């Protein structure tokens, strides 16, 4: 028996393992099984070269649990080790302690990846002792047994092992007994080892017999040694691709289509990426792309490794140029990973362009599912945006599709305003905004449907990129004013509007979430008597606030301003004005006359104060000016009070406001009930 000290102890090794290599505690199983697979493949290679004459046809890796002995054993029939090789690769790790190791590799963390023996030492994270029983393939080799309890001391002695290969026996410590559960090991093997290139066996397949689950004689192989991405596209059917997708995501809907990557220059990359059906939300489940290195699982946390918008895709990427390391910080900084990321972006753009060019009709049928992904890419990746301009589609309310170039040609004749800006009209809810859409279409305009969570930021980006284009939602103004074709007609003066607005303001609902500004426009007697519109700028700011929060939250906290546009030409509105004149017309005329007189008198007094310093103005002039100011304000308040009182009593005014609210889906609960009852009263 040989005894000695290895160049590292668990006390100084574990911090290194955790810092540089492993962010998941259960990664030890991947390392031990991967080492076993490597050893098996090496023996296969030697056999293929005629350097080993034994049978490698039944090569496999076995994982076994012994709950009574509290051990996990990983066995292979691979290349094995001699005592000299154990001494070299296990005992003499190329550093004497953590300090020296950190100093040596501080500028090249990836250099430690695959450092022979280091992956093996991850087993001590869960073990209080690890045994190696191994027999080398070399002719005349004898089996050896190595034992270590995580301290620098080890023992190395001769042992009995009939076949070539290695057993790693991990004596699980008290804190890690969860790993002695069959379900836990199954979960880990499925996560880390399900596509390794050598069969990995965990127990036997089971069957139900006499109401109980019993083992069969057949090995339970947990991995697919030749997954779809390792095959040539020409050898795969569409059904093969879909079957592989179901293998990856058993509960998911079938994908829209896929991209099979197969690159060997300037780096090695294979994989299959799938376009899933995305819901209309950014709260999609990411971490669906699985990253592999030579079929060994690396990570499924790919944010920062691939562009943000690509995290919406599903599938597998595999590259030997990706360091076998689950620390994302190192993956993100790795130059090969950055090149791969850029290449994938290009391939995705090329694939979408190809599908659009070759199968446009099919592309259009899938647009609603693709749109969120493409818009996300356009917003976050400039290189992708350049490609996407050719296949991004606008969809209008007639369910027709147009490229950006096609749509510009369509709307240019009718939707160019007086300042030569091209105005894109859109709705985010064709049903709720139906009357606005129809009013716009009646004027010969076309209306787009832009109704997902990324529509507002995309509109903002398009307007920034093309300064002569504007996007206007159809409910942001009356149809006549959506696209300014000429200078506006004569409208009511500010004073005239103030004399009318209290009537309608009085019957607008009081709500903490929104307020109303009453405006008056001549829309023609055939248009609606009243229309509620939303301020485009404030609505966009609130939409962005809902998405981004943070510095935009100010807008989100503000109540939304609604514009109640009263059509001064509509017969029903004129009827309200006539009723006002009949009820309080003489009183309003008296107030108006007094207001004009007081205003004129104040202007005279103010003229006398003009160009004089405060101390030069006589006190009686100052007092008179203040008295007149109070009198004017009192008359205005009296005027407003009479108009407000009239408005509250006028059922027609209330009915017209409620109709406008109803058209916008804003009339609910008690107010809706009152509206219905009032409607019956007015019909009688």
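^ Assign residues to that structure.
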């Amino acid at each position: 028996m040989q005894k000695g000290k290895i160049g590292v102890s668990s006390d100084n090794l574990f911090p290194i393992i955790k810092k540089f290599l492993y962010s998941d505690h259960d990664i030890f199983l991947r390392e031990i099984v991967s080492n076993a697979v490597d050893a098996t493949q090496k023996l296969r290679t030697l056999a293929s070269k005629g350097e080993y004459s034994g049978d490698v046809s039944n090569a496999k890796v076995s994982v076994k649990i012994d709950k009574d002995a509290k051990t996990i054993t990983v066995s292979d029939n691979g290349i094995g080790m001699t005592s000299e090789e154990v001494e070299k690769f296990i005992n003499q790790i190329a550093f004497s302690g953590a300090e020296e190791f950190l100093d040596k590799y501080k500028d090249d963390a990836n250099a430690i990846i695959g450092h022979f023996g280091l992956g093996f030492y991850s087993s001590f994270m869960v073990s209080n002792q690890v045994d190696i029983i191994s027999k080398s393939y070399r002719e005349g080799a004898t089996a050896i047994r190595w034992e270590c309890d995580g301290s620098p001391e080890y023992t190395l002695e001769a042992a009995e092992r009939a076949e070539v290969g290695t057993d790693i026996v991990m004596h699980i410590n008290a804190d890690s007994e969860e790993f002695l559960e069959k379900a836990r090991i199954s979960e880990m093997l499925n996560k880390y080892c399900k596509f390794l290139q050598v069969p990995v066996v965990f127990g036997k397949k089971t069957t139900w017999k006499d109401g109980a689950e019993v083992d069969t004689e057949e090995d339970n192989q947990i991995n697919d040694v030749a997954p779809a991405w390792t095959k040539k596209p020409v050898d795969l059917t569409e059904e093969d691709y879909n079957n592989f997708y179901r293998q990856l995501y058993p509960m998911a809907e079938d994908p829209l289509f896929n991209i099979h990557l197969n690159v060997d220059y300037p780096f090695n990359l294979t994989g299959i990426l799938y376009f899933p059906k995305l819901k209309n939300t950014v709260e999609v489940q990411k971490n669906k792309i699985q990253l592999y290195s030579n079929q060994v699982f690396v990570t499924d946390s790919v944010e920062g490794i691939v562009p943000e918008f690509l995290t919406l895709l599903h599938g597998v990427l595999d590259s030997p140029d990706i360091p076998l390391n689950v620390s994302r910080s190192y993956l993100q900084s790795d130059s090969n990973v950055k090149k791969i990321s850029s290449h994938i972006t290009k391939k995705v753009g090329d694939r979408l362009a190809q599908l659009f060019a070759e199968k446009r009709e099919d592309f259009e049928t899938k647009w609603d599912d693709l749109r969120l992904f493409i818009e996300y890419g356009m917003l976050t990746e400039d290189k992708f945006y350049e490609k996407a301009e050719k296949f991004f589609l606008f969809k209008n309310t007639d369910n027709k599709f147009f490229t950006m170039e096609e749509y510009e040609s369509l709307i240019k004749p009718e939707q160019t305003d007086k300042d030569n800006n091209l105005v894109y009209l859109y709705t985010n809810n064709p049903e709720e905004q139906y009357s606005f859409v129809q009013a716009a279409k009646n004027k010969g305009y076309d209306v787009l449907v832009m109704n997902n969570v990324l529509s507002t930021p995309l509109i903002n980006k398009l307007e920034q990129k093309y300064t002569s284009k504007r996007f206007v939602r159809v409910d942001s103004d009356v149809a006549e004013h959506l696209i300014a074709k000429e200078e506006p007609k004569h409208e009511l003066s500010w004073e005239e509007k103030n004399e009318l607005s209290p009537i309608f303001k009085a019957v607008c609902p009081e709500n903490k979430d929104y307020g109303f500004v009453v405006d008056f426009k001549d829309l023609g007697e055939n248009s609606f008597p009243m229309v509620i519109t939303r301020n485009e700028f404030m609505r966009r700011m609130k939409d962005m606030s809902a998405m981004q929060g943070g510095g935009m939250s100010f807008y989100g906290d503000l109540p939304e301003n609604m514009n109640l546009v009263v059509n001064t030409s509509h017969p029903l509105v004129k009827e309200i004005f006539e009723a006002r004149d009949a009820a309080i017309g003489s009183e309003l005329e008296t107030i108006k006359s007094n207001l004009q007189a007081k205003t004129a008198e104040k202007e005279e007094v103010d003229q006398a104060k003009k160009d004089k310093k405060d101390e030069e103005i006589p006190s009686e002039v100052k007092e008179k000016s203040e008295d007149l100011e109070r009198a004017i304000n009192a008359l205005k308040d009296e005027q407003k009070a009479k108009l407000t009182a009239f408005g509250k009593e006028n059922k027609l005014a209330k009915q017209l406001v409620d109709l406008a609210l109803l058209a916008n889906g804003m009339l609910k609960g008690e107010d809706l009930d009152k509206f219905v009852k009032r409607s019956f009263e007015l019909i009688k």
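The chain has a mean pLDDT of 83.
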